[in-house]
Amino acid sequence: MSASSLPPLKQVRHGLRRTTETLATELALARPGNDMPAWTAVEWQLATAAAVAHGISPLLCRFSTWQHPAWRRFLVEQRQHVALRHERIASLLARIHEGAQALGIPLVALKGAALHALGLYAPGDRPMADVDLLVEDRHADATAALLVSLGYTEAFAQWKHRVFKPQDGRAVATLGEHSDTPINIELHTRVHERLPVSTVDITAQVWPHDAQPGLNAYPGMGALMAHLLLHAAGNLCGRSLRLIHLNDIALLATRMRHEDWAVLWAAQTPWWAYPPLRLVARYYRDAVPAPVLARLRTDCPVVLRTAMRTRRITDVSCSNLWLHALPGVEWSRTPGEAARLLGQRLRPTKEAIEERADMVRTQVWLQGQDWVTQGHRRRLLTWLTRPIPRMDTLYVVRKALEHVAA
User: How many folded domains does the chain comprise?
Assistant: First the structure.
């Protein structure tokens, strides 16, 4: 589909905002009987794109009762694909566990795998784009060799993790989840995020004190919550938060006790935890204890917590169509951090250039896009003359329009 086949970008922008906020409310209420929205045909297509981008299609299949035929059919298909893919992921995790046990390597299965292990999601509820593993530095190369023995190859490495892909895997260019999509593995030796240029590291809170060879759980729900919040903070900072992230946090929050929440303050002041929890509280009204939110608010820098007063999921996700020149600048805690962020935008580091090249090479939604392959100066000049839409958003919008047409 060519760019000219898209609706006007102003219409896409407005439709994404309207549908995303409606879906957020529908998911947070999680009960049948809500009135079906009076959307236009294009808005139903954009709602499909938003559901995919935010990873919530299979959950909506369970909780939404809207009887729009194409909508229901798509949600059912998505849930079936996610359930089949979950079986493949469970099998892969079992093989990794067995191999790590034999080699004496302790690992931690992170985020989605941990949420499933706690029973917060049933198979088919939650998409998992990849498998995240945490390993100590001293075992990183041995773990990489284990993954290679399981049919994987290292695709690239960046500051945050090493990415492994199936040797015979091929990307499936389709809308949303597909059972045949290759299962990538991200191998971490640290649990950390750049917010926006300074690094917050919570590895010590996440690593189990009595880790055994094979796959291990987090030390407790507080450690898992700390990781979910830091991961969400990183995505907030980059304006790539997803509704499934908020749903993860809300579900876990309802199971936590006072001592679980106290883990957030065990090693450092969690100044970064307030923004994602503030968003959770906006949509999931009873999920976050008021005293926890109040205490985290005092830990949060004034500029950041002020910025969060009116922010909604659309403002900090791919549902916000336009790229921003300085995403995450409000997360700078000092003028020096803001200046460093500006400097990196004007003159990217070698690491940033290499990371961008890896993304262009490996991400389906960036293939054939002239904008991402232009030189940095030319992109800056374009940015100054006109608004630039997000390539990931346009990709899923195009796929949604093609899917409905088919």
Answer: 1
